[in-house]
Model the fold of this input.
Amino acid sequence: MALVPHANVCIDRWEARIEDGRAEARPDVLPSAITSWNGARAACEAAGYRLCTVAEWQGACAGPEDGRRVYPYGDTYEPGRCNTAEGLGPEERKALDRTGQRARCVSPEGVFDLSGNAYEWMADSDSTGMTRALGGGNFSVGEEEVVCIRRSPLYQPPDQDIDGIGFRCCTEPS
Done:
């Protein structure tokens, strides 16, 4: 896990994969990206962690409040730096990458793939409590969707396991 002091959290460096019911985060594996919020929460808990809150996830992506980044790597969008729809050649297929596959898609804190690859479930719900927050965008969307802090929050029902939605886990710093 990566320590993100300004967000007071430790966060998985890579998107998680569910193995034997537990969340595992490591490089060079396909993350679980057809996962419901319920499944993601249970996998984090089975591993001794929890889903990240929106504030924690955004803190890991955007950086300290005094220097908020638009993308995890900076303020200028770079097509192809992360796994997004833009920057692909006409013959390239939009698909999920292995974790950490794009070495330059990393925050200064060492957290990979916060922009693109898979949307990520977060712990927070909307005001009705009926849907759960998502962040990060995925491999099929572009510049406007893969920002650290969205203008309009994105939510989905917690029981839906939709292609292109994964997660990562968080915990308090020791």
